[in-house]
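Memo to structure team: turn this sequence into structure tokens by end of day. - J.P.
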Amino acid sequence: MKITGYTTRTHAVPTKRYCQTLDLKDDPKLIEEYVKRHSENESWPEIREGIRSVGILEMEIYILGNRLFMIVETPLDFDWHEAFARLATLPRQQEWEDYMSIFQNAEANATSAEKWKLMERIFRLYD
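Reply from structure team:
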């Protein structure tokens, strides 16, 4: 656990963020393998390239137990439904989703947009 925080990037354009959640199967060995497969050395370059190609500037996944939390940063004109519909058609994307499905509490053939549930912001420290 990193108690010093995580640095963020500043983008050349104004951004917005989406927050999502997904639960993994509650099995320590599966969770360990899921984390490993998302490491820089194990994740597939085609998936990273596909994510960027649909307009996503940054994507981070955090874990606590078997709960995942994802932050997606995009330009202000980003269209969520359009981007994820396009992402689902990219080479190897469905193969990646199938590859990850053994770890996730979600339908085996679901797309990323179907598995990851958008969260609603309920608090913000206003200016």
